[in-house]
Amino acid sequence: MAEPRPCALVPVYDHPATIGAVCAELSALGLPVVLVDDGSHAECAAELDRLAAHGHHMLRLDCNRGKGAAVRVGLAEAQRLGYTHALQVDADGQHASEDLPGFLAELDGTPEALVVGYPRYDASVPRSRLYGRYATHVWVWINTLSGEIRDSMCGVRLYPVESLNRLLARHSCGDRMTFDTEILVRWHWAGGTLRNLPVRVHYPRDGVSHFALWRDNRQISAMHARLFCGMLRRLPRLLARRWRRAPVEARP
């Protein structure tokens, strides 16, 4: 792998109050920032124009296509610009910037790894969000026959760009909320190296969520069903992998 050249990748849809601070925190880490405007309305679009005028690289989608679509576009642009890794961070400012250097530190030892955040919540987390995530966690553990992916929904992760784009050329992984989970399951199926790191999460009282209850839950349910069928087709290979990785004393 080439000498690591990371950037930050931030998909943005209507977070005008927080995106400036997120960009400042990422720039303080020495990261060039690639912004993808996912069809934001006028107030956020104007803020993104201001940030682009101050040197951040921005792409603008002509309409709201969803987080997955924005991340795919951003990863393709990151590779075109010559970056080897993209630190994806959400635009809402919920994740502690002090925890981000740990993700970049993984480049020294395992630059081929996909590094995934798992949340460490404070008291601000809504109980519905906290407990609702576990249905997806259980399905991910079933569909990978593994507990390797601690959390598949956290918005902080370090992607090896070229490898991810090759995977996405075969599997788009959805345009909206399904993307974050499906890309990790397919990365695991492909035998990619994965690391989990903690990241502190705070939910501001006036935070903005773009989760569409009926649409996104329907798409997430369909994704889990589709991945379950994919797991069944891969079952012999996944079981063989578990056998190879199991300690000798744990085998029957």
TrEMBL record:
It comes from the Bacteria. Residues 9-126 form the Glycosyltransferase 2-like domain. This is Glycosyltransferase family 2 protein. Pfam families: Glycos_transf_2. InterPro entries: Glyco_trans_2-like, Nucleotide-diphossugar_trans.
